[in-house]
Amino acid sequence: MTAISDRDQLSYIAAQAADARVNVELETEGMTLNIGPQHPATHGTLRIVAKLDGEQVIAADPIMGYMHRGYEKLAEVRTYPQVTTLINRIDWVGSFANEVPFVLAAEKLMEVEAPPRAAWIRTILFEMSRIANISLFLGDMGLQVGAVTPAFFAFRDREHVLNQIEAATGGRFHPNFDRIGGLKDDLPAGWITETKRAMKKMRNFCDEIEGLLQGNEIFEARCRGIGVIPADVGLSYGLSGANIRASGVDWDTRRDNPCGLVHNELDWKVWTHPDGDSFARFWVRLQEVRESTKMVDQLCDGLPSGPVMAKVPRIIKVPAGEAYVETENPLGVMGYYVVSKGDLTPYRVKIRSASFNNISITPWLLKGVYVPDIVTILGSLYFILGDIDR
Amino acid sequence: MSSTETPTEDEVVAEPDEAREALLASIQTELGDAVVGTHLVPGDDLWVRVTRDAWVAAGEYLHTGLGFQYFNFLSAIDWKPSPFGRDMDAQVDVSLAAAADPQADTDPADADDGMEQGVAGGETRFQVFARVNDIVNGLGVTLKADLPDEDLVIDSWVPVYAGANWHEREAWEMYGISFNGHPGLRHIYLPSDFEGNPLRKDYPLLSRRMKPWPGIVDVEQMPGDDDPADAAETTEAAE
Q: Does domain B9-80+115-204 have CATH number 1.10.600.10?
C-alpha cells in the first residue's frame, strides 16, 4: 500500500516536474542572429554574430575589418605632413580632432610649440568637430528607438557647424588644416560672429533634442537601466569619453592632461552621470555639446592675435625619439604613439583610437540582453567604424 | 583607488618629477631585477622595460598595487629596418640600392641593418609595449618587454586587464606574437585565411611595388637647390 502510493507520488512529482520544466524553461533551440555588416546602428560596417536563446543574447561576437585600411602601415611610408591626410579619415565625423594629437606628438618630438593664436584656433575647431560629431549622435539615438524626427533635426542643425568649419578650413568633412607648428591659415573675416550665431543655434538644438527625447516614455523605457557598465569594468576595458563618464568616472583629458590645447584657460565643467546605462551616455553627451558651445564662445572672445604658424623647416624631419600624445576626441581618448628615427617618415605610428576600446566591451556587455536592446546599446556606445578599423 | 605612495596632482609642473620618480622607485622595488630599462621625461612621461617573465607581474602590480586601473592600449614594434627602404618601394635590397644611388636614402642609419631600439632600450627585434593610466593622479606608464626572435610568445594580460583581449589579437595578427593564456587568438581585422604579418617591417607594401609613390617622382630639383635637406635647415616656413 505504502509502496504503491510512494510510486504514485513519485510519478506524480516527475510529471509535475516535467510540466514545470516545459513551462519555466521552454526548450528552445539556440539560434544565431547575424546583425550587419550593413545596419544603421553601426555607423559603417560592423557585423555582430549573436547567439540567441529565445529573445536573449547568450554570446555576441563583433566582427570587424570590413573597413580596415592599414593606416599604421601606410603611415610608415608617408612623410609627417602627409600623414594628416590619412588620419583625417579615422573618425570621419569629427575629422579635425583626429589631426590634433598626431600633430601635437610630432611637435613634441621636434620641440616646436604652436603660437598661442594657433593653439586657440585649434581648440575652437577641435570643439566644433565635437559638436558636429555628437549632434549626429543625439539625432541618431532617437533613430535607434524609432523616433525619426531627431535625426532630421540633427542633420539640419549640424550643417551650421559644418558650414563654419568649411568656411575656416575649406573642407566640410576632411579639413586637413593642421600643420606641424601651427595651422595652414588664419580665420576668414567675419568668422567669429558667424560662429557665435551658429553656437546659439546649436544650443537651441540641444534644447529641442532634450524636449523631444528626455522624458519621452518610450525613450526612457528603452534606455534606462539598459546596458549598464560598472566603472571598474569600463576602466579595465579602456573605455573613454562620455562612455566612461556616464559610469561616474570623473576623468576628462581636456582638463586632466591638457597637451597643447587651451581648455584649462576656459570656464567649463566635466559632466558625469552615476547610472552607467544607455540613458546616462546619451545625457552626458547632450551636456557635453552644450559645454562645447560655451567653450567656443569663450574661445572666440579671448582669441589672441599673432601668427598662426611657428618657424619650422620647409622639409620636416622629426628628431629620433618616442612620444605619446592623447586628446579627448568626440568619441573618447585618441592617442598617437609616434616612434621617430630622425627621418622624414615616422618609424612606427600606433593609433590608439577611442572606438576600438569602446566597442571591445560589447562581448561582455551584450551577454544576457534582449535583442531589441542590442541596437540601443550599440547606439549609445557611439562608435564610428573608421575609428575601430583604422 | 590610488595607493598612498603616489603624491599630489601638481607633479606636472614640478621640475624634478617627484610623482613619476616615486612611481618608478616603487616599481623597481617591487619587481627588482625584472626592470631592465627605464626612461623618465620629467613632467611628461615614463617608460619601463621589464623582462618577458615579469610582464604579467608588472601589469598586476600596476593594476592592483598602484591603482593603474585604466587600460590604454597594447601593441608591438618591429625594430628591424625594412629591407625595402624607407619608402618600401625599393625593388632590390636596400644596401645595394644605397651603394648604387647615394641620394636614394637621406638617412644612413636606415641602410645598415643594425637595429636601434627606442627609449628604455631593447635587445631584440620585437618588442611588446602597453600603456596603462592612473586616472586619479593623471599618470601614465608605457611598459615594454623584449621578445626573442626564436620564441615570439608572451603571457597574456587578459586576466589583469580585460580590455587587452582585442589588442592582443591585433598584435598577434599584425606581428605574429603569441599570447599565452589568451582566450581566443583569432584574426580581428584580416580575413581568417590571411597569410603573413603585415606590420612587420619585412612585409612588403605591394601597392608601392607596383606603382611608385607619385610624390617621389614629381619632386623636381629647384635650380640652385643642390641638396633639399640642406635647404630645409635654412628656409623658414612658407606660411
A: no
